[in-house]
Amino acid sequence: MTNWLEVSLTVNGELAEAVADVLGRFAPNGVTTEQGVRFVDDEDEGTPTGPITVRAYLPADEMLEETRGRLEQALHYLGMIQPLPAPVYTPIADQNWMEAWKSRYQPIEIGKKLIIVPAWLDSPQPERIAIKIDPGMAFGTGTHPTTQLCLELLEQCSDEMDGFKELDVIDLGCGSGILAVAALKMGARRALGVDIDQQAVDNSLENAQNNGVDSEALVLGVGSVDELLGGQFPYSQAPLVLANILAPVLIRLFDAGMAQLVAPGGRLILSGILDHQAGDVQVAAEKHGLRLLGKRQVADWVALMVG
Ligand code: SAH
């Protein structure tokens, strides 16, 4: 097994690209970047902020010292244009860089039945229903509390609705498609995932394939409430509707007719709500004839089940 030397530099956003470019010349497997996010307002889904850590992995072979010398020289030239911090070196023993990077993503147990597993791992708990996720995806990697709350309510629904037998589901704002995939894996007959972002629709398709979802069972497309109600998709109503979008957007979507997507007697799971916004979302739901059936909270985030 190869050993590797991790090289990392933490720099500001403007420099990160140039540093990644330099490191990439010496790292056979490319570079990874990592940055924090902050929430600038209630509608923000996470704006990247703060310094970026750029990491690359050099094979620790007989060429290592020479490669390292060339890399330092290249960084030195870059540093003449823009001052740079010194690179940090960390030996990675007995595992490859991919493992080192991927080990940051651990399986996440949800409720009693589900587990989110990074796409390259076998599930450590085969008795749970595994949802495979590629953390490189744009939205909905399963690490966000709003997604987890939705999945917990989904599980509760499946217990109460006899395992979703013959049930159709609409996933509004599907992101990575994680909720639609989970519903199908939990027994739903068909799922319809829509998102206003084409990239999310593409990600959802890829994710569905990673999960071996029957391509007939899942329909994906760009759109939202208007397009659904306008008949642009195979069905415009379902007994179970999932919407993990932010609270102000959910409230607007109620005005656009979101409640009509819910078949009579059906349920709507709403997430992406900060606790101080939950009252307003509940009022919007009630205005459209939906009562509160359940509520879950993790830290500041709340998910509601109405029907
Ligand atoms: N369902 C996933 C992703 C949630 S992120 C999960 O639970 O993890 C929210 C998603 O909603 C984003 O992909 C965003 O593009 C989408 N979105 C935002 N506004 C929307 C709207 N008005 N209609 C439909 N989708 C919307």
**What's the Cα radius of gyration?**
22 Å
SSE string = EHEEHEHEEEHEHEHEHEHEHEE
Number of helices: 9
CATH architecture designation of the largest domain: 3-Layer(aba) Sandwich
The CA-CA distance between the termini, in Å, is: 55 Å
CATH class of the largest domain: Alpha Beta
Task: Bin the helical content.
Answer: 25-40%
Physical arrangement of strands within the biggest beta sheet: 10-9-8-11-12-14-13
Structural features, described:
It is a single chain. The protein is an alpha/beta fold and 307 residues long. The chain has 2 domains: 2-94, 2-Layer Sandwich (Alpha-Beta Plaits); 102-306, Rossmann fold. Helix content is 32%, strand content 31%. It has 9 helices and 14 strands. It has helices spanning 13-24, 64-81, 97-102, 145-160, 178-185, 198-210, 225-229, 247-255, 278-287, and strands at 4-11, 31-38, 47-59, 88-92, 108-110, 114-118, 129-133, 168-172, 190-195, 218-222, 238-244, 262-274, 292-298, 301-306. The strands form 3 sheets. A 7-stranded mixed sheet has the order 10-9-8-11-12-14-13. A 4-stranded antiparallel sheet has the order 2-3-1-4. Strands 5-6-7 form a 3-stranded mixed sheet. Strand 8 (168-172), helix 5 (178-185) and strand 9 form a beta-alpha-beta unit. Helix 4 runs parallel beside helix 5 (178-185) and helix 8 (247-255) runs parallel beside helix 9 (278-287). The longest helix is centred in the first third of the chain and has 18 residues, at 64-81. It is elongated, with a radius of gyration of 22 Å. 38% of the residues are buried. S-adenosyl-L-homocysteine (SAH) binds next to helix 4, helix 5 and helix 8.
